[in-house]
Amino acid sequence: MASVGAGLHLIRRRAAGRSSAVERRNLLTVCRFSVKTLLDRSCFDTIDDSSPEFTNFVSILEHILSHRLKGHTTWFGYESPRNFWDYIKVACSKVPHNCIRSIESMENVRSSRAKGRAWICVVLMEKRLSDYISSALRDFKTNRRFYEDGAIMLGEEAGLLADTLIGLNTIDFSFCLKGEGVDGSCPSVIDYTPYLKFTQSADSISSDEEEMRTLGSSGSESSTPDKVATAASIFTEQSNLVTKCKRFEQKYRVALEQKGYLEELVRLREAQLSEAVSHNKALQQSLADTHLSHTVEKGQLEYIILELQDQLTVLKNNDLRSRQELTAHLTNQWPSPDALDANAVALDTLLYQKNTAQWEDSKSFQSLEQLSADMSLSQTSLERSNTLSLEARTAGTHWPRQGKEETPSLRGLCGSLTSVTSYKSLASLKSSECLASPATEISSPGITPS
């Protein structure tokens, strides 16, 4: 009995595995057919939420995402059914710029089934359904948590599903998410009739011909085998024509799809070309403006350089002229060595006369004192304006100053002393060897005022 029970359990497991495999294969095949019908319909008409092809596709996708989906287990051990939206909002939360929050915030969409259908519509309009499915398939932990063994989302066929859904990115969908189409109250039912195809075999065709002959002979006594053969040939020709017509129609649809794709590609390339041409024109205009401004700035800088060079030349000439004038002025103001020697001789002569003269009264002594003061002032003025040679010559002689103020009367006196006559008289006095040195005369007590 145990072996019989084990055998029955094994048979049931095999049957369940076979049924699950057949179900997966049927859903994926029907999904592929549904995508093809949507592509064919998009070549002739705009697809909206009222199109039967779209309704059937949504039902197929709901069945695929809900295949062997685990229920939600409560604290009390009860298991409540889940909808595929509970899986999508967790598995697709890492998709950049996803629409999950916007679906959750819709006011007219409340049930999980309605939110799942609204999500399908939104991602189809965004042309990102394949991206969402691929991102969900990469989250293995979430898939294991939500699906049982044998589910489509856990099998290798799920990768083919994501590749199949890429073709929907070429279709422009238009849906209204504010009406009753996303209510979600009605369950999804798949319509398999558009995807069923029956091919009549040769034996079946021959049996149909026999049946037509039999019906022809029983229906009319005047019927002949030639007529029956003619009717059979006509039926065969009609079936062949229908097959050829369908074949040509399929080729026409394929060519029309290719034509639409190429036209869209050409429009895209034309738009890119026009944008590139406008950008090139803008760059050329900017380059021309830059070249013009560069030329203008270059001319202005050249003019400024020439003007600065002219100003520098004028300043150099003015500086040279000023130097020449200053040199000439200083040369004219500088006393000659002959004048310096004449002043020294005149000074020695006056000192000798002051030492040898007889001062009888105080008036004559005051005049001599005034003369000595004037001579000391003259010597001081010469020391300030002459060279170091004159300073070294007169540094040993210090004339006493009697508190007299320096007056311009020295100029006339110096002129008289440096005259030709006084110079000759001083020279004659020197020749008679009667002159004394200034140092001896200054130290003599005879010139000290009483």
UniProtKB/TrEMBL annotation:
| Residue ranges annotated for the RUN domain, each copy included | 48-180
Family matches, as SUPFAM superfamilies? RUN domain-like (SSF140741)
- Alphabetic keyword roster: Coiled coil
User: Sorted alphabetically, which PROSITE patterns does this protein's record hold?
Assistant: RUN
Supply the InterPro entries for this chain: Run_dom (IPR004012), Run_dom_sf (IPR037213), RUN_RUNDC3B (IPR047339), RUNDC3A_B (IPR047340)
Q: Which Gene3D superfamilies match?
A: 1.20.58.900
The Swiss-Prot or TrEMBL record describes its family as follows: Belongs to the RUNDC3 family.
List the protein's name.
Answer: RUN domain-containing protein 3B
> Which lineage is the organism of this entry classified under, starting from the top rank?
Eukaryota, Metazoa, Chordata, Craniata, Vertebrata
